[in-house]
Structures are given as structure tokens and as C-alpha cells.
Design brief:
seven-stranded parallel beta sheet, 44% helix, alpha/beta, 13 helices, Rossmann fold, binds nicotinamide-adenine-dinucleotide, globular, binds 2'deoxy-thymidine-5'-diphospho-alpha-D-glucose, 356 residues
Length: 356
């Protein structure tokens, strides 16, 4: 038995592969294009492990995917591969259209052909699990109820629009061709191996480097935060018992304004790695021009996955964020290695001239 994972060298994908192989001996075929966000160092502990087959390549390369499917005969495909950063989608939407929409389409075609050729019982058992985001539902006002699975799609950024399009394609392949799909829409993840272009790792890394902590706008935008290992356990549960064709929202019941997140990170660093001048890392907070089209609030109603599949997050925000800050303190060489010239160019592009 095996599963094919796409994007398994990225933040969530690599956590998923590591957790999967910690709990099971089932072979993982890991197909990742190794864009700037893909990092084989995340998978270093699996070096020489015959249960992990890493394949550098594009999930939109139908011939490559067809070959992998034919060779390994996986019982499931779990699709993490995507361009994932909203700010990058604002600076350059084209990669998002190509990867998230066209790439997903090619993957669906290859998977449909493979699934169509399976014997009865393998055909019945097969699943394609598509990993998506709460951002497809758009933005909530302060007192609106949290997003349920039936909330209408109102994506506001090129990133969320491209993810919404991929969700629609996945849905259509189920309704039209009967492809046994599952879709998950999750809130903001945080934890080990999070690329430091995203809020939490950026704040940790900048704080330790004595750099400004750039808060967009008034810092009162709200996100729901979920520790990445909880996202991975939810995906495993949906794959195991989710009803074919269904959508499951995944969230941490942890709505917090960005500024509170930044204050929490500063307080943990003050405790665990105090500044040499005795001042708080909060001194480094800088308000910068807001993200264009910035969604004000996301909130996930995760009661369906709890009711139907018995899944609940194991971490509170307090336990998860402490683990995360400790991980970054203990893995400074990982941080140094991902801060390549390309990373520095991105930081310059996104933050230059933005001081509010
Ligand atoms: P990430 O940017 O860290 O990783 C994406 C991975 O996909 C990288 O390893 C990259 O090399 C790979 N990739 C990109 N294009 C590819 C291609 N054409 N073929 C094969 N591999 C390719 O992203 P992440 O944060 O780990 O997110 C993973 C998935 O989860 C995405 O689909 C994202 O939309 C979704 N998601 C993310 C979050 C979050 O908070 N990070 C929350 C909900 C959903
Ligand atoms: O909600 C799920 C989504 O969460 C995923 O689908 C995306 O892939 C993932 O990147 C994430 O999107 P966000 O835009 O919410 O995450 P990000 O870490 O970029 O930003 C979180 C919040 O922090 C957002 O309101 C913008 C703000 N922010 C971000 C950065 C990078 C800042 O204030 N300053 C910053 O420097």
C-alpha cells in the first residue's frame, strides 16, 4: 500500500509526511517541484528511509504523474502542492493561476485516468484529498458567524481565487466523473518548518535578528490559528473516514487579532531569549502600509469534522505557539539556510517603501 503526496517538501506537506511515517509504515511517494517554498532539509530525518520516495517534479506534469501512479499504485493522492503566499500573489498572480488552477487540473486528469483503470475494490477504496483554505470563503465582519462548509465562495486575493478555482475543479470531477474526492478547508497553520515569509515565523526570525516587526495596517485583522500537527491529524482522519464528495472545514477555535499574535511571540522571546539590552522585543514593532484588499476576519466553524469524524485539535494556541517559538530557537541553522538571496530579494520587494 502507498499514498502519493504532492507538495510534501513544503511547510504543511513535510509535517504531514513526517507525521504519517511516525504512525505508519505505508510508503509515501512525495512529488514536489522544490520551488522557493520546498525544502528537502525538512525531510532530512527520512534520509535512507525506504518508506519515503522523494520525486522532484511538477504535479502538473501529467506524464510524470501517470508514471508514478502506474508504478506505485497508490490508494490515495493527497494534494498539498500550491503557491501559498497571499502577498506573493499580489505581486505576481501568474504563478498562482498556473500552479493552483492549471496544475490541479492536470493532476485531476492524471488521477482520473488512473482511477478509471483500477480493479473494482481498489477503485472503490481510492481517494483524492485536496487540501484547501478558509480564504476561499472571503472576509467576515466582526460579529458574523464563522464559515461553515456551505458558506458561499467569495475569494478576494489572487491566491484565494486560484484556490477557489481548484476547489471547484475538484468538486466538478466528483460530480461529473464520479472521482472519489475529499476537500478540506483549513485556517492559518503555524509550527515547525513554516517559511519565514508568513506572519509568525517572520516575527520570530526578525525579532531575533534585531529587525523591525512589520504589522500591516492597524494589526486588528483576525485569523483562526491551528498548530500544523493538528491539521495533519485532521487530514489523516478525513482520508480515513470522510464521506466521498464532502467538504470538511478544519480550524483551531483560536480567533486572534494579528497584533495579539505578535505580542505573544514577543512575550515568549522575552522569556526564552531576552534581548541583551533588557528591553522587550515589542520595541521592534513597526506599523506598515496595509496589504491591498486585506481580508479583515476569518473564522472557521469546525463542528462538522468533530461531529462526523470525532476530530478535535490537540493543541491550544498557548501550547502550540510555545512549541513553535522553541522550535525556531532550536533550529537556527534551518532558518539561516532558508534565508537565501531569493528570500532577501522577496523581503526587499514586499517591505521596501512600506513604512506607514
Ligand atoms: P508551502 O508554500 O509551504 O509549500 C508548498 C509546496 O508545494 C512547496 O514544497 C512547493 O515546492 C510545492 N509546489 C509548488 N508548486 C508545485 C508544483 N507545480 N508541483 C509540485 N510541487 C509544487 O505551502 P503550505 O503552507 O505548506 O500549504 C500547503 C497547502 O495547504 C496549500 O495547498 C495551501 O493552499 C494549503 N493551506 C495552507 C495553510 C497555511 O496556513 N499555510 C492553511 C490552509 C491551507
Ligand atoms: O487562512 C489560511 C491561509 O493562511 C492559507 O491559505 C495561506 O496559504 C497562508 O499563507 C495564510 O494566509 P494569511 O495571509 O492569513 O497568512 P500570513 O502569514 O501571510 O498573514 C497572516 C496575517 O498577518 C494577515 O492578516 C497579514 C498579516 N501580516 C503578514 C505578514 C507577512 C502582517 O501584518 N505582517 C506581515 O509581515
Amino acid at each position: 500500500m502507498s499514498v502519493l503526496v504532492t507538495g510534501g517538501a513544503g511547510f504543511i506537506g513535510s509535517n504531514f509526511v513526517l507525521d504519517w511515517l511516525a504512525a505508519s509504515d505505508e510508503l509515501v511517494i512525495n512529488l514536489d517541484k522544490l520551488t522557493y517554498a520546498g525544502n528537502t532539509e525538512n525531510l532530512q530525518s527520512l534520509q535512507g528511509d525506504p518508506r519515503h520516495v522523494f520525486v522532484p517534479g511538477d504535479f502538473g506534469d501529467s506524464a510524470l504523474v501517470a508514471n508514478l501512479l502506474a508504478k506505485h499504485q497508490p490508494r490515495a493522492v493527497i494534494n498539498f502542492a500550491a503557491e501559498s503566499h497571499v502577498d506573493r500573489s499580489i505581486h505576481g498572480p501568474e504563478d498562482f493561476i498556473q500552479t493552483n488552477i492549471v496544475g490541479t487540473f492536470h493532476l485531476l486528469e492524471a488521477v482520473r485516468a488512473y482511477w478509471g483503470g483500477l480493479q473494482d475494490s481498489a477503485r472503490q477504496d481510492f481517494r483524492l484529498l485536496h487540501v484547501s483554505t478558509d480564504e476561499v470563503y472571503g472576509s467576515l465582519a466582526k460579529d458574523d458567524p464563522a464559515f461553515t462548509e456551505t458558506h458561499r465562495y467569495e475569494p478576494n486575493s489572487p491566491y484565494s481565487a486560484s484556490k477557489a478555482a481548484s476547489d471547484h475543479l475538484v468538486r466538478a470531477y466528483h460530480h461529473t466523473y464520479g472521482l472519489p474526492v475529499l476537500t478540506t478547508n483549513c485556517s492559518n497553520n503555524y509550527g515547525p518548518y513554516h517559511f519565514p515569509e508568513k506572519l509568525i515565523p517572520l516575527m520570530i526570525v526578525n525579532a531575533l535578528a534585531g529587525k523591525p516587526l512589520p504589522v500591516y495596517g492597524d494589526g486588528q485583522q483576525i485569523r483562526d490559528w491551528l498548530y500544523v500537527k493538528d491539521h495533519c491529524s485532521a487530514i489523516r482522519r478525513v482520508l480515513e473516514a470522510g464521506r466521498v464528495g464532502e467538504v470538511y472545514n478544519i480550524g483551531g477555535w483560536n480567533e486572534k487579532p494579528n497584533l495579539e499574535i505578535v505580542h505573544t511571540v514577543c512575550a515568549l522571546l522575552d522569556e526564552l531569549r531576552a534581548r541583551t539590552d533588557g528591553k522587550s522585543y515589542r520595541e521592534q514593532i513597526t506599523y506598515v502600509t496595509d496589504r491591498p484588499g486585506h481580508d479583515r476576519r476569518y473564522a472557521i466553524d469546525a463542528s462538522k469534522i468533530e461531529r462526523e469524524l470525532g476530530w478535535k485539535p490537540a493543541e491550544t494556541f498557548e501550547t502550540g505557539i510555545r512549541k513553535t517559538v522553541l522550535w525556531y530557537l532550536d533550529n537556527q541553522s534551518w532558518v539561516a539556510n532558508v534565508q537565501s538571496g531569493a528570500y532577501r530579494e522577496w523581503v526587499e520587494k514586499n517591505y521596501a517603501g512600506r513604512a506607514a
